[in-house]
């Protein structure tokens, strides 16, 4: 009994899905037809059929009119592009403000790139970068200097030999005299 209900529900879901797809297809076809009709109407209104005159003078006049029309359309297109750019920039600013207000920041997708220091400088500075950068070349050379304690340890050698010498007050006196 339960399995029959499941089958019926699945069949109904599939039927609804196919019906929705058929509706969507018809709507898309209607939209395409409406756009085509709108395009034809616009062209009929703004682009009257071209009639070529017979004389050279009339042809020159027609060319001048067409040139003026092209210039005006080009200006309109430029103005529309500028308006579009301005609105897109405004939209980006507003969406950034919205993110800031919500406290959610959109992180750009970062990729790990293995790059040497030279390649990085070349990428940042372009052709200006000519110096080859060897990171180890500028490091300070450190020579190990012998400290006082190490010298004493080397001079003393084996501690058992000097133990009698340094024991008692005489040994302490010798250490103080040696220190001075």
TrEMBL record:
It comes from the Eukaryota. GO terms for molecular function: actin binding. Signal peptide: none annotated. One of its GO terms (cellular component) is troponin complex. SUPFAM superfamilies: Troponin coil-coiled subunits. The keyword Coiled coil applies. Gene3D superfamilies: 1.20.5.350, 6.10.250.180. GO terms for biological process: cardiac muscle contraction; skeletal muscle contraction. Residues 25-104 form a coiled coil. Keywords: Acetylation, Actin-binding, Coiled coil, Muscle protein. The keyword Coiled coil applies. Binds to actin and tropomyosin. Belongs to the troponin I family. Troponin I is the inhibitory subunit of troponin, the thin filament regulatory complex which confers calcium-sensitivity to striated muscle actomyosin ATPase activity. PANTHER family: TROPONIN I, TROPONIN I, FAST SKELETAL MUSCLE. This is Troponin I, fast skeletal muscle. It comes from Drymodes brunneopygia.
